[in-house]
Design brief:
232 residues; alpha/beta; Rossmann fold; 6-stranded mixed sheet; 4-stranded antiparallel sheet; 27% helix; ATP-binding; ATP binding; P-loop_NTPase; ATP hydrolysis activity; ABC_transporter-like_ATP-bd
Length: 232
């Protein structure tokens, strides 16, 4: 698999350093060359779906509860059984080890899982993760806190930190601000905007039409028959 990774924000990132395993720098580059293509993807309860998301694009996905929005994100991320084809930069995901694909195309649930007691133990890149905390209004002390002491909103933002710190090329976000107040929501949206500007592709499920209007470069609506474009 290609070692190419997006720049991302909160701490300026030199994409070339990430590709080569080098240090993080203060150089901000833009990489919008990635593409995520979904063709005929369907599972037991939903599909088929056709979708293309480019690097540097934010696609907002809406639709009635229960129609399968979360399921679609999980199928794209190879977390649910599905038939069809998903390509990252022209390479079929089935030709990549699943963990490698999921690090590049990362799904973040509305209420993500936590498997050990301390927040820091979940962070593969603790320095990168820690640098993102102020961006989302999170105290540094939370990094060493027990997960059981966190509020739902803190867990939601820390799950986003965990995902972004791995420098994925695409983020699949399932209602990333559903547990947040307006101030925290604004912080998340600002961070997502910077990620998009610096090359990360975003597919975001939201029930908030106003949020979709703020963050999206393109909007889709899911129906039982598939995906339909929405007029802003």
């Amino acid at each position: 698999m290609s070692g190419k990774a997006p720049c991302h924000a909160g701490f300026a990132l030199d994409c070339r350093s990430v590709r080569q395993g080098g240090p993080w720098t203060n150089t901000t580059l833009t990489d919008t060359s990635s593409s995520l293509i979904v063709n005929g993807l369907h599972g037991r309860l939903a599909g088929p779906f056709d979708l293309r998301v480019e690097g540097g694009e934010c696609v907002a996905l809406s639709g009635p509860s229960g129609v399968g929005k979360s399921l679609l994100l999980r199928m794209i991320a190879d977390l649910e059984p599905a038939r069809g084809r998903v390509e990252l930069d022209g390479t079929d995901r089935n030709r990549m080890p699943a963990p490698t694909f999921r690090r590049q195309v990362t799904y973040v649930a509305a209420d993500a899982g936590w498997w050990t007691d301390i927040v820091a133990d979940h962070m593969a890149y603790p320095d990168r993760a820690r640098a993102l905390l102020p961006e989302l209004g999170l105290a540094d002390a939370l990094f060493e806190a027990p997960v059981t002491t966190l509020s739902t909103g803190q867990r939601q933002r820390l799950a986003l930190v965990r995902a972004i710190s791995q420098a994925p090329r695409f983020l699949l976000l399932d209602e990333p601000t559903s547990a947040l107040d307006p101030e925290a929501t604004g912080r998340v949206e600002a961070l997502l905007a910077r990620l998009r500007e610096q090359g990360t592709g975003l597919l975001v499920v939201t029930h908030d039409a106003a949020q979709a209007a703020r963050i999206a470069t393109r909007r889709l609506r899911m129906t039982p028959g598939g995906l339909e474009g929405e007029t802003p």
